[in-house]
Amino acid sequence: MNLPNKLTLARIGMTVLMVAFLLVDGSVWAWLAAVMYALASLTDAADGRIARERGLVTNFGKFMDPLADKILNYSVMIVLVPEGLIPTVALVIILFREFMVSGIRLSAAEQGRVVAANIWGKLKTLVQDLSLVLILVLRAAGAAALVTTANVLLWICAALTVLSGAVYLWQNRDVLKDADQKGRK
Question: Does the pTM of the predicted model rise above 0.85?
Answer without folding.
Answer: yes
